[in-house]
Amino acid sequence: MDWNKKRVLVTGGAGQIGSNLVRRLTKLGADVTVADNLWRGQLSNLSVDWVPSIDLETRFLNVDLAEKAACDLACKGQEIIIHLADVVAGINFVFGNQYFLFNKNALIDNHMIAAAQEAGARKYVYVGSACSYPADKQAVLDPPPFKEDEVYPASPESAYGWSKLMGEYLCELAAESGKMETGVLRFHNVYGPNCVLDPAKSQVIPALIRKAITYPTDDFVVWGSGQQRRAFVYVDDAVEALVRICERGMGKGAIQIGPDYSTSIRETAEEVVRASGKDISITFDTTKPEGDMDRAADWSKARDILGWEPKVDVREGIRRTYEWCEKELQYERSTAAE
Ligand SMILES: NC(=O)c1ccc[n+]([C@@H]2O[C@H](COP(=O)([O-])OP(=O)(O)OC[C@H]3O[C@@H](n4cnc5c(N)ncnc54)[C@H](O)[C@@H]3O)[C@@H](O)[C@H]2O)c1
Question: Cα-Cα-Cα-Cα dihedral of 261, 265, 267, 270, to 10°?
Fold first, then answer.
């Protein structure tokens, strides 16, 4: 597909996945607009070495996409819409704010898809989550890698998982109208540079990295027993899947993105400690929530349709993420000291 001058809207483009995607799309020559209210994303994510990936005056919209008028404004004139904006956060926020999160994501996803259709967009990409798989399937250790259709009959553990499944379902229904092609990726746990380090909203890998960087001032405490397992996806692999779905994955139903093996949180913490080069003693706080027990992806559909495969393993991915987080926290500290 020729991306040159293609008008592409990336919602949530100041976030972790979105900002890495924007960088990639602008390299491909696309004319990218970002819509993000910076609830969790940061404007600085849209720059590399202080050079913005897009014109921040004309191609960045600081808007709340829970409002239909904002979605209309963002979608106007766009050919391809990659909708990533949703409320995403770590386990504590997710289970502590279930109503807020479901309500907000439902508003954002409903308004965005309506606005995209009304604006005459040709392609609309949505990203679902492995958190949408039924809670009982994820409650045991070492389940066989999930296939896409195992998401039904639906019974996700969290309101976040429900909201993301409803977002996928909306895409299916919208595609039936024949006005717009829709494509759906279902990501497992994505991590990498431009992740969120704020402890109130961060996910497991950046949260552990922050604790390793501030150790021994802060204890290195892992939430839960450390036995729970996740299939981690490095952000560049997620971005590759997003580019490929626009090119050859539209109208094929949900396509799962993640490795077919999982890594325990204990192993993840050990990798973080290794990347830190410090002598850190790990403690586990079993009074804290740990979420689903285990899940991994049967990614054969992604291989067959997108030609996708996971390329960056957890050790290398954590090493690169650690490096980015160290610089980010150094910068935070130096600006706080000014
Ligand atoms: N990170 C993961 O592990 C993961 C896994 C599965 C699916 N996903 C999905 O991928 C997408 C991107 O996730 P991410 O990891 O980059 O998260 P992120 O939080 O970094 O990005 C989401 C962006 O949406 C923005 N946003 C939130 N509410 C908004 C609103 N009302 N109006 C405008 N912008 C708003 C945030 O500011 C943020 O920049 C999300 O849809 C998420 O559900 C992520």
Answer: 150
Count of structural domains within the chain: 1
Query: What is the distance between the alpha carbons of residues 223 and 210, in angstroms, rounded to a whole number?
Result: 14
Ligand 1: residue whose CA is nearest its atom 11: 84
* Cα→Cα distances 208→51, 66, 218, 220, Å: 29, 31, 11, 8
Domain assignment present for 274? no
pTM exceeds 0.90, yes or no? yes
CA–CA distance from 159 to each of 16, 104, 208, 219 (Å)?
21, 11, 24, 31
Q: Does residue 85's CB lie within 6 angstroms of at least one atom of ligand 1?
A: yes
316, pLDDT greater than 90? yes
Can you give the CATH number for the domain in which 73 is found? 3.40.50.720
Structural domain of 109 = 7-191+232-259+294-312
Instruction: Please indicate, yes or no, if residue 325 is contained in any of the structural domains.
Output: no
The kind and range of the H/E element at 181 are strand 181-187
Residue 52 lies in a domain: yes
Task: Find the helix or strand (DSSP H, E) in which 67 lies.
Answer: none
Extended strands (E) in 206-268 = 221-223, 229-230, 232-234, 254-257, 263-264
Query: Does some domain include residue 201?
Result: no
Query: If you measure from the C-alpha of residue 105 to the centroid of ligand 1, how many angstroms do you get, rounded to a whole number?
Result: 10
Q: Cα(234)–Cα(192) distance, rounded to whole angstroms? A: 6
Best residue among 86, 295, 314 to mutate for probing ligand 1's pocket (most ligand atoms within 8 Å of CB) is 86
Residues 42-87 have pLDDT tens digits of: 999 999 888 999 999 999 999 999 999 999 999 999 999 999 999 9
